[in-house]
């Protein structure tokens, strides 16, 4: 029972061969860039940038790069380019490291 509860809670992050896959619920036009917490099966991240011409996507990659202390080239949006719900592949990190840096 406990394992199934943990599996539900951990749907927002998955280990891969090269790092992790992170589910993000992006909220553009916020007052400040911040990790808001969990939003269903994703991490809610508020961004100051508007969702115009990919600016919010660029801001999301820059913000996560800074928070996770990894180069921006190691973060790739693999799904959800024009959606609030995104899947981001992050190379060279572990699930535990991402959880600790995001405070989740």
What can you tell me about this protein's structure?
- The chain has three helices and six strands; from the N terminus they run αββββαββα.
- The chain is an alpha+beta fold and 104 residues long.
- It has a single domain, classed as Conserved Hypothetical Protein Mth637, Chain: A.
- Strands 1, 2, 3, 4, 5 and 6 form a six-stranded mixed β-sheet that branches.
- A hairpin with a 2-residue loop joins strand 3 (34-39) and strand 4.
Q: Could you state the order of secondary-structure elements as H and E?
A: HEEEEHEEH
Main beta sheet strand tally, sense and closure: 6 strands, mixed
Q: Tell me the total number of β-strands.
A: 6
The structural domain count equals 1
Strand-residue proportion: 25-35%
The CATH architecture? 2-Layer Sandwich
Overall 3D form: globular
Query: Could you please say which CATH topology applies here?
Result: Conserved Hypothetical Protein Mth637, Chain: A
Q: Say which CATH homologous superfamily is assigned.
A: YggU-like
Percent helix: 25-40%
Q: For the residues shown, what is the average pLDDT?
A: 90
Low-confidence blocks of residues: 1-8
Structural class of the secondary elements?
alpha+beta
Give the N-to-C terminal Cα separation: 22 Å
Radius of gyration: 13 Å
Q: What count of helical segments does DSSP give?
A: 3
* CATH class bucket: Alpha Beta
In short:
The chain is of the alpha+beta class. The protein is 29% helix and 34% strand. It is globular.
